[in-house]
Amino acid sequence: MKGLILSGGKGTRLRPITHTAAKQLVPVANKPILFYAIEAMKEAGIEDIGIIIGETGAEVRAAVGDGSRWGVKITYLPQEAPLGLAHAVKISEEFMAGEPFVMYLGDNLIRGGIKSFVDEFNAKKPDAQILLAKVPNPNQFGVAVLENGKVVDLEEKPKQPKSDLALVGVYLFSQKIFPAVNAIQPSPRGELEITDAIQYLIDQGQQVLPHVITGWWKDTGKLSDMLEANRIMLDDLESDVQGELVGDCQIQGRVVVAKGARLESCIVRGPAIIGEGCKLTNTFVGPYTAIDSNVTITHAEIEHSIILAGSSITDINGRIVDSLLGKNVEVTRGELKPKAYRLMLGDNSQFSIV
């Protein structure tokens, strides 16, 4: 069995972060989201993985490499444009070489991995198997209707959903999916929809089985979803303080301080993670905060936030919460007169004034 991870989307809902970075490489608990997908594949016994890449392909290649650090083999499959999930399947046919495969959307997180899902597919050998979860807002997802334990109908983001079972971003397919993706036509939004391809299988009398999960999963396409994913992953954290603690530092709860980090007169209340090369002085770090490498924070408070590498926060009155700061961002309190807000924000930025 092979694996297919999709990492070609533009990430419009996470702009401006994704103007300069692939959305699948934005870190959750200081690990790029895409890495969780690779680890889930490896844990399920899948070691030959194709990654669909688009305009951020060079960045993905640089971050992932050949896959040897995970004990897997990575093959990159360029997609000319984000033309739909079924199009990604279509261009992977030669790579699959007649084998069944798992397709995993690279911006999804599934707590507990996919091993049980893969084992069930291998035991039952259906033509396709889809991962489903009950959601409160099914009109924002592909939705499945079940009868007698089988999938009988699929709709992509229906205005009036027939069920509350949404397609989670993991699918298992036999080789029969390839005639399906070659038979369907683009949807009104100009994409080849994977729901249409699976519906084609159903209409042709092929067996499509559901696997309804009860655990946690998240499509990390929005800021609120990123922060929730960060919170969930940090809940599994085990304390490991290797960095330098100077002065009156207090470490409370489950906290990781990476080697090479230096904290002086700080309070860190876990779960929280502080990356390599960070320098924190007179700072409070609250729960569910992930601070990436080489971040400098001085005289500030931060909680329930994600701070990417190379950023600095200095002399801030009030606490930063529920925030995502990109790479090399500077947040400071200026002393210039007259006192005023001086901002340089990119497209699609969000800024709240206390």
Outline the structure in words:
- By secondary structure, the protein is α/β, with parallel strands linked by helices.
- It has eight helices and 28 strands.
- The strands form six sheets. Strands 15, 16, 18, 19, 21, 23, 25, 26 and 28 form a nine-stranded parallel sheet that branches. A seven-stranded mixed sheet has the order 5-4-1-6-11-8-12.
- The longest helix has 12 residues, at 223-234.
Itemize the secondary structure elements and their pairings:
Elements: E1 2-7, E2 27-28, E3 31-32, H1 33-43, E4 48-53, H2 57-64, E5 73-78, H3 85-90, H4 93-96, E6 101-105, E7 108-110, H5 115-124, E8 128-134, E9 142-147, E10 150-156, E11 165-173, H6 177-183, H7 194-203, E12 208-212, E13 217-219, H8 223-234, E14 240-241, E15 244-246, E16 250-252, E17 255-257, E18 262-264, E19 267-269, E20 272-274, E21 279-285, E22 289-291, E23 296-303, E24 306-307, E25 312-314, E26 319-321, E27 324-325, E28 330-332
Helix pairs in contact: 6-7
Number of helices: 8
The helix fraction, in percent, is: 10-25%
Give start-end ranges of low-pLDDT stretches. Answer: 11-19
* SS content category: alpha/beta
What is the terminal-to-terminal distance? 53 Å
Count of β-strands? 28
Sheet with most strands:
9 strands, parallel
- Give the rounded overall mean pLDDT: 88
Overall morphology: elongated
Note the beta-strand portion. Answer: 25-35%
Q: Over the alpha carbons, how many angstroms does the gyration radius reach?
A: 22 Å
